[in-house]
Known about the structure:
May play a role in plant defense. Probably has no oxalate oxidase activity even if the active site is conserved. The chain is of the alpha+beta class. Among the domains are: 65-209, Jelly Rolls (Sandwich); 216-245, no CATH class. 23% of the residues lie in helices and 23% in strands. The protein has seven helices and ten strands. The protein has helices spanning 2-11, 27-30, 32-46, 66-69, 213-218, 226-233, 237-247, and strands at residues 107-112, 126-132, 137-142, 148-154, 156-162, 168-174, 178-181, 186-190, 197-203, 211-212. The strands form two sheets. A five-stranded antiparallel β-sheet has the order 1-2-9-4-7, with no helix packed on it.
Amino acid sequence: MAERVKIEEKVGGSGLRPEPRGTGRPIKARLHPYVAAACAVVLVLAAPTVGTDPDMLQDVCVAEPLFIFVKLPALINGFPCKANVTADDFFFAGLRNPGNTNNPAGSTVTAANVESFPGVNTLGVSIASIDFAPGGQNTPHTHPRATEIIFVLEGTLEVGFITTANKLFSKTVTKGDVFVFPRAHVHFQQNPGYGPATIISAFNSQLQGTQAIAMTLFGATPPVSTDILAKAFKIGNAKVDAIKGRFFTPK
């Protein structure tokens, strides 16, 4: 008991617990690095997830039309806010009618993202409809800024995505089915040819971005070196140039 009183007198009401034998500093001081590490973890968890749209900073920010905002300074997420907002800014009728699938891919995407639907600016969402002719394909592509989830309105589709471990997850989906493609993963949809098909695609980004793999590699401007592509695909330079010719569009 006498020893305990001596220890308490030595501490002197500082609020510090007596340090164990063999240490040269108070327990509170020795815990400091752990407290700092815990705070760092909390800050990381509280921060927005990398690669997704930022949180809203105000109720609405309808994007100015393209021909206007390219001449104005960026205010929120690269799109200036429109001054006079109406209900029509939050309305989009572009998905009412089927798209024209008379093209080489046999499919067409009608997008309702910030470029065509300014009301979604800063809201972190967008939507699209994709129409497929029999045998049509939405070629392998990625969305670098969004996860995509689809709902089949009509028809049958073969869909799938590939992981970074090169594992394919594929499924045949039909009317009423839902399938999801993780953000930035290569994925595709193809109509096996039983009839027309239509899906609704939703994204957790106002502008998901789309990179069609073949077009990205063989139709880039300026073009990717033929030698690089020949080595990557293990084919001859002449074959690469022939493929490039199918994607290059003279201006």
